[in-house]
Amino acid sequence: MNMFGKDAKTRTGEPVKTASPEKKKELPPAGNGTSVIGQDTRFEGKLETGANVQIDGSYIGELNVRGTLMVGKLGTVTAKVHAGRVVVHGRLEGEVVAGSKLELMEGCSMIGDIKAPSLMIQDNVEFEGMCRTGKKAQ
Question: Domain extents for the chain?
Answer without folding.
Answer: 34-120
